[in-house]
């Protein structure tokens, strides 16, 4: 059932119809993305040739909402139509669209077989501008160039549109209305400021990604070809949201970066704010319950497998990594070469696919390692790689060992800043500045738990009988406990009401954690309250553990907490597609993925991000086109004489 704010596309055969010319066509997807701007999610519905009514059987009864809802623009009345998967705009008289006293009017053969129907009570001229402007980047200087384009062969298409739409309807409306349509197209193509691909995936409040029918960019269809700038993503582990502001007066690299770019006020982390789950969220746009990497330490009872942050042989198992497609796999599917260095487990295949070049995560501390990483990234972008994603854990290591307010951490910020300054120099020297979008992200923040912090260490082992459990996963801010089935109630009751943490049965875990709806979630979850640290059990059931069963090592900084300001992190970006010198409102970690897909013109997979939260960072496609080429104005003006010629024919 099609609801208000959705799209229905009914297919009415007019000769052979290829499947790709309906709901999977790129223009179709562009329409569906735009429809989300007037509310609701997208639903694409196609009738099969056998079930589709013939032209003479199709009626324009407004009450039959599955098949008809007109778009009104005064004057004239404009009705957008597909013809073999292409966009057409025939003119239709109002009396043909709506009869007095509800009388039905037959749709004649002047109407085309593929009809787009936005189910909305009111559609503004602004929406029409946006709709038409989807083709504007491809009309630039191309009226005589027939390329492999979604608005393919514009001359041929326009001639079909004009001959079938204007030649028939033009005799009804006459010269004046034809001129009005031409002027309308000129305004639409020049005034609309929308980007070529709008992504409207599932809301960040959903607990699971929508199906491909409900999430734009998720159908796997390759977006239309157009010039695409390269993308470099630099992840600095443990970069707390306020580190930059605390050290700004002593820095030169980051200020230079942001002078020509965008800074989010902060980025809200996921739960838990741990490395492996956050890395996967950045790469997929999904919450942990949807991408399956729930924590730094996990257990799969079915396979008897343990996931341990500190054990590469455990994290490299394919079974952990098949729930969600990361951005580099999507790029590889679209024949875009990707370079990844130290980035999560990019070296583990997804559905037997690997990126072109990848070295997975391994400990790589030190500023020299970071400088080397940046140089490798630039080297890859100077070649034919279109996506580079690199990682540094130097800041995180220092934050854990010395704490977020230490002199050592401030020195580390200066070292990273110097490396960034040299990186920007090299980008400018090699001419990559105007060809590469650079995004700096992090996975989580850091909070102080050293001397004077008031942190209380909670001995969870005092409340849990180790013989009642087969695994205890994690420590610090969060812990999962897997009791034997007959001991679940006993273990839970022994933990209830204890100071320093909240305890949840699996089905009691708050929805806002976006955590509980995955098969690997254990029966009991402990979440530490601020200023408390959960100590692990001194037994073999504890993961992680040292050979001597020491449950933890003293640190001055840690992370993993929820609802804590210190867990917030950063988002910096600059490049030809980003606005310059702005501070953007806060975003969520799940929102970053959509920018990656957008910038690379990749089909976004189902995700939990919210496009509207990040769209304002980008320079619009219309502004880029108008500033870089006069072709749009020329192309649109050429439509006027073309209309007149065909009208006279």
TrEMBL record:
SUPFAM superfamilies: Alkaline phosphatase-like (SSF53649). Keywords: Membrane, Transmembrane, Transmembrane helix. The chain crosses the membrane at residues 172-189. Residues 200-225 are annotated as: Disordered. Residues 201-221 have a biased composition (Low complexity). It holds the Pfam family Phosphodiest. GO terms for molecular function: hydrolase activity. It comes from the Eukaryota. This is Ectonucleotide pyrophosphatase/phosphodiesterase family member 6.
